[in-house]
Amino acid sequence: MKKFFLVVLSAAPFFVFAQTAVSDTSAIDEILIKENRLQIPFKKTTRNIEILSKEEIAKLPARSINEVLSFLNGVDVRQRGPFGTQADVSVDGGSFDQTLILLNGVKISDPQTGHHSMNIPIPLDAIERIEVLRGPAARIYGINALTGAINIITKDVDSNSIIAHAYAGTSFKDVEPEEGRSGIYFGNGYQLGGTLKKENQTHQLYASHEFSNGQRYNSASKNTKLYYEGNVDLNELNKISSSVGYIYNDFGANGYYAAPNDKEAQEIVETLLATISSTHQLSPNFYLSPRISNRYNEDDYRYIRTNLDLYRSLHYNNVFSMELNSRYETGFGDFGLGIESRFENIASNNMGAHDRKNYGAYTEFRTDKFQNLLLNVGAYINYNTQYGWQVFPGIDLGYMLSDDWKLMANVGSSQRIPTFTDLYIQQSSIGNPDLVSENAWQAESAISYSKNNFQVQAGYFYRDISDFIDWINTVGTTYQSMNVGNNKIHGINTSFKYKFSTNDYTHYSINLGYNYLKPSVVERTGDFISRYVAENLKHQAILNLSFQYKNLLLSTANRYNERASSTEYFLSDFRAGYTFSNFHVYADVQNIFDVTYIESGAVPMPGIWTNIGVKYNLRGL
């Protein structure tokens, strides 16, 4: 923690110098938050929303979406393996399954286990921005958005281009002797892509491959990603969009799930995503948006990679969804209405064959027609074939103290239904088919200031989850999933973001955040060891700084995490980059202080790691 405060103090000149700075030209106020039916300007949002733009992503010393998310306030990334192998992501102290993951508004969370929700087949270079909606989001997105939602949005195509990216890195440490080989730990990757823009259509295609021999015994990984997205304007009133993505992920799973006995474990995960949607303006005030999507996933877990007849688990699951979203604009405010259906099934040699159906309908109303008051109110009605009927109401209020200062308050409910693993797994951990769904109420208040490229916010929330699902272990037993009672938590979050320029050539940016989480009286039954609660974050502090002079970029990203178990670690990363012509070269040093730390399972993450890369972008073909 002392190292983190030293880094904060070193940033003091940025704050002092900023008093006479010239503002950057790109303003966060201009961003539209893309929900399923209502698009809200960032300045008029009534929720705690964190945004990471493509410019900010490009400055971070990160190689994967998982690593990028770890630099966002309130987001807890627990990686089981480096290089984007596998990670659990949660928001504001929730478990990983309580955060909904979306790609361009399409739900891609994993119903099998939740551990593969971050199997996302797009490279960082294809991302326009990442939106993190904190707090209950069931009113907006339906089930499984219990503590929040993360929406990853791809770039719009504005020209013809060719994109190439190659990189390699190493720890400069020798592989372990039992590997039976010599050399050092290393990793490399490449990405190829292109965009095509015509008068009434756009297309983008990306392919990437990464390989690493790991950072310890049996931690090697390789993954291949393919992604296509196309948009066609039939006319001014009707548009069609489609996308297809595929990822193949093969990694050594030493210590992932059953340490210390899974030293020879291996896992292969394949995910296929497909979406087709359209938007239609049926009148000057009425918009209709149907969408069909499918997520297919294969998970091959090999407990002993050299003996596939022993404890091998094969899981095949599919999610098919249909949505109809609509928006009606009036002089008094905007209405959102819609319905959706979701069909989930799994076939597994370990869990058997199961399926369930989910049907939802929502209504929402938003207005800014009251003097200084912003109102967003609605409800989501849900029916699940396992858990019956439920209603998730919510209301968001904002009050403009001035053009730049805003007070916000919201109250809402949310739910998470158990994964198939929670219910049916029969391995080293035991599922529980009698589980009921988790339900939560959360209240939040905040004050924010936003103008051009300056944003500051501070807030407090209280959340009460009933029938909280945890994996518990009593003395002499294996872990089993159970509804263990209420999980109550108080939270404070603060953030400060500022981008400024001292002249036409020199630009600075600062992102500083601190989050504190405190469980209140937790009502539980029995004495047991918890798998999830003890690993929740208690303190989180983030400081990202960047300096750009003409074509030179210098940036540092720092984060301090302390968990409820008192485990703490401070990580500091650095990037130096230079752009000339159509090329950008960079060098990263991650974990500068060579900290030994574990985020999840029994997997020590890499120590100091050096990475170099080059990007090529030819535009205007």
UniProtKB/TrEMBL annotation:
Residues 188-592 form the TonB-dependent receptor-like beta-barrel domain. One of its GO terms (molecular function) is siderophore uptake transmembrane transporter activity. One of its GO terms (cellular component) is cell outer membrane. GO terms for biological process: siderophore transmembrane transport. Keywords: Cell outer membrane, Membrane, Receptor, Signal, TonB box, Transmembrane, Transmembrane beta strand, Transport. Residues 1-18 form the signal peptide. The keyword Membrane applies. Residues 43-149 form the TonB-dependent receptor plug domain. The keyword Signal applies. Pfam families: Plug (PF07715), TonB_dep_Rec_b-barrel (PF00593). SUPFAM superfamilies: Porins. It is found in: Cell outer membrane. It is a multi-pass membrane protein. It comes from the Bacteria. Belongs to the TonB-dependent receptor family. This is TonB-dependent receptor. The lineage of its organism: Bacteria, Pseudomonadati, Bacteroidota, Sphingobacteriia, Sphingobacteriales.
